[in-house]
Write a sequence for this structure.
C-alpha cells in the first residue's frame, strides 16, 4: 500500500436526473469519469463544499438529499498525483437533487454526461464504483467504508 503524505476531507455528489441516470464528469486531471466533488476547504462545511464543487464543476445548483456514506478505507482512498503528492481522502458522499442551472464544463471537467448506474463507463475512477453501488441500494442509513 502507498503511504500517504496528507489527509484531506473530500466530498462527492451522486446527482440523478429523475430518470434513474447519474451525472458523471470526465476529469481533466486524469481523463477518467467520476462523480463531481473535491476537497473541503478550511472554514467550510461538507454541505457547503459539495454545493460549491458541483456548481464549479457542472454549472448546476443542487441541494443535499441525504448522506450516502463516508469512505476512508486506505486501500482505495489514497490518490497519487502527478506532482508526487499522495493524499488519503476521507470522503462524504451525498445524494443531491438539481435545483437550477445548465450543464457546463470548466477547467476541471472535460465532459458531463448522465449514465445508467448499471452501465457505468469502464474508465470510472475506481473508488467511485462502491459509492454508486451503495446509492443504488437506496438504504436510508449511511454506509461507513
Amino acid at each position: 500500500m502507498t503511504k500517504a503524505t496528507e489527509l484531506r476531507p473530500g466530498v462527492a455528489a451522486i446527482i440523478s436526473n429523475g430518470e434513474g441516470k447519474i451525472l458523471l464528469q470526465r476529469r481533466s486531471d486524469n481523463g477518467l469519469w467520476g462523480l463531481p466533488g473535491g476537497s473541503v476547504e478550511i472554514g467550510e462545511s461538507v454541505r457547503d463544499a459539495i454545493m460549491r464543487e458541483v456548481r464549479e464543476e457542472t454549472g448546476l445548483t443542487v441541494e443535499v438529499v441525504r448522506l450516502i456514506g463516508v469512505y476512508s478505507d486506505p486501500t482505495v482512498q489514497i490518490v497519487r498525483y502527478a506532482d508526487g503528492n499522495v493524499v488519503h481522502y476521507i470522503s462524504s458522499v451525498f445524494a443531491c437533487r438539481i435545483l437550477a442551472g445548465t450543464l457546463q464544463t470548466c477547467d476541471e471537467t472535460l465532459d458531463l454526461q448522465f449514465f445508467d448506474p448499471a452501465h457505468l463507463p469502464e474508465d470510472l475512477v475506481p473508488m467511485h464504483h462502491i459509492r454508486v453501488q451503495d446509492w443504488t441500494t437506496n438504504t436510508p442509513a449511511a454506509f461507513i467504508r
Remarks:
- Helices lie at 46-58, 128-136.
